[in-house]
Write a structure and sequence with these properties.
The protein is mostly helical. It contains eight helices and two strands.
């Protein structure tokens, strides 16, 4: 149902996509489902909270949309939308500041990646070093500002935010 999505989200997705949602122009229930999967991912990138769980969710959605991903491409085509158009609209929203990242959100993701390295490390000495790094980074995260980042790296490209 279209009511589940904010006017801001519809605007940021562009006229073509918003119109197909508003007119409920889908060929089958599966197409509608895949469209909502995509929109949920974009909605996740609009998360404003800077806690650990929200930050990781936001960045995972961002990475899913922006990086080479067969699942993303397949879901776009199943939705009846060109993946390049969806990405273009997403990058436009980032450039305009409709999707922003805070320093703390980015730090939480750094922390999470390091934590996963620790979790997967088998060597005891390496684990001890990683544990110290994780503990240190966690303290830094908690002291990091929630100010919006002005430039954000996306796929090796610098994208202005806001």
């Amino acid at each position: 149902n279209i009511v589940n999505y904010s006017p801001t989200l519809l605007k940021l997705m562009g006229i073509e996509i918003a119109e197909s949602l508003i007119t409920q122009n889908h060929h089958c229930p599966e197409q509608r489902l895949w469209r909502h999967v995509l929109l949920n991912a974009v909605e996740d990138t609009r998360i404003t909270q800077s806690d650990r769980k929200s930050s990781i969710c936001k960045m995972e959605a961002h990475d899913w949309i922006t990086k080479e991903n067969k699942d993303f491409t397949w879901i776009c085509w199943q939705s009846g939308w060109d993946p390049e158009v969806v990405k273009e609209q997403y990058f436009k929203a980032v450039r305009k500041g409709n999707i922003v990242f805070t320093k703390r959100q980015i730090k939480w993701v750094e922390y999470y990646k390091l934590y996963l390295d620790l979790k997967n490390e088998k060597d005891v000495e390496k684990r001890q070093k990683l544990r110290k790094q994780v503990d240190s980074l966690r303290k830094k995260v908690l002291n990091t500002t929630t100010a919006v980042v002005k430039m954000f790296i996306v796929e090796q490209n610098l994208v202005p935010c806001g």
